[in-house]
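mind reviewing both lines:
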Amino acid sequence: MIPKFLSFEYAHGVTAFAESESSVTMEWKIINKSGATVWVETVTGTFIEGWKDSSGERYIKKFYAGALDDLFIKSQHEILS
């Protein structure tokens, strides 16, 4: 399997009470021995949270990690289906 990172996006909530959201998008590709592509899938993981101080590097890392967790769960589902 060959992963290709496509994007990381973070949207900060307008107010402290609004939800902030992040997403990570990755493309997965499987090629056979002759180099031909046999499977390609693009998967996006998301993480949403609100009601917290969502500023600072530590909080951004939390959003990135949450979106990655969701991405890998969804990727496993796509690969096995």
